[in-house]
Amino acid sequence: MFELKGAMVAIVTPFKNGTFDEDAFKKLIKRQIDAGIDAIVPCGTTGEAATMDLSEYEQIVGCAVDECKNKVPVLAGAGTNNTKKVIDMAKLAESLGADAILSVSPYYNKPTQEGLYQHYKTIAENLKIGLVLYNVPGRTSVNILPETAIRLSEIDNIIGIKEASGSLNQVSQIIEGKKGDFEVISGDDFLTLPMMSIGASGIISVSANVEPKLVADQYDAVVNGNYELAKELHHKLFRLHEAMFYETNPIPVKTAVSMLGLIEEEFRLPLVKMSDANKERLRNILKEMNLL
């Protein structure tokens, strides 16, 4: 079963004239793999999955699986606030060859902790591959509490949680109480180093879309016990991490990747292009990092 560890990229979805740009996507994946990224995570928040229909989802996950075959695993996003729809998406991704599923907690419905438990338990029961929980209360208005994550860790094919609550206290509680091989992985680039220092197994990164090698190098430095290098890379990447949230993700990251000449600067409503002022701030960061 897929091991939830390493430096992974929450990869953007390139569009061209309103449709999926498959050629650009393949080049993005190759760039990530060449830079040392350990897994590709398509169709997440950063990939604008909320705006995709099922046929597009199938095309994008299938493309990722084909491009990553025999190279790195694919952790496919499959999350919404309808449990049945999540199961359909997850089973489709499984049939396409995805190595595991990443599923954001249900938003808008605001389920109870028991509702969250039953939601994820039901999804896991319908899959043969691993399921990774995704906790990002800033977007969903629901926090998967440590006790719920620990309870879910007892289910064999629930293999970990992407933690983006911003709470190291919560992360510590999950790591201390988790069962078996269940892993905790950072969902915040800012917190990769502090979370790994207390037992997290890596990062699902937004910034890696822009600077994959340094993100991979930071993970490797921590694993190898080179905390001086890890700290140096943390501070080197910090302003880029900040820039990725000048506006709502994935607006800044797609803008940055387009500035690098890798994709079109194209979004789907309700997301729109970055403001001119923030775009200039972002361009200056990329120049400071010698990316432009």
Description:
The protein is of the alpha/beta class. The chain has a single domain, classed as TIM Barrel (Alpha-Beta Barrel). The chain has twelve helices and ten strands. The strands form three sheets. It has a five-stranded parallel sheet with strand order 5-6-7-8-9. Strand 2 and strand 3 form a beta hairpin. Helix 9 runs antiparallel to helix 10 (227-243). The termini are far apart. The model has no long low-confidence stretch (mean pLDDT 97).
What is this structure, in a nutshell?
With 292 residues, this protein is α/β, with parallel strands linked by helices.
> Under CATH, the topology is which?
TIM Barrel
The CATH architecture can be named as: Alpha-Beta Barrel
Please count the helical segments: 12
**Stretches with pLDDT under 50, minimum 5 residues:** none
In CATH, what is the class? Alpha Beta
| Mean of pLDDT | 97
Molecular shape: globular
Calculate Rg over CA atoms: 18 Å
> How do the strands line up in the largest sheet?
5-6-7-8-9
How far is it from the N-terminal to the C-terminal residue, by CA?
40 Å
Strand content: 5-15%
The SSE order reads EEEHEHEHEHEHHEHEHEHHHH
Secondary-structure-derived class = alpha/beta
Number of strands: 10
CATH superfamily: Aldolase class I
In total, how many domains does the architecture comprise? Answer: 1
The percentage helix is: 40-55%
The major beta sheet can be summarized as: 5 strands, parallel
Give the key terms.
globular; five-stranded parallel sheet; single chain; alpha/beta; 292 residues; TIM Barrel; 12 helices
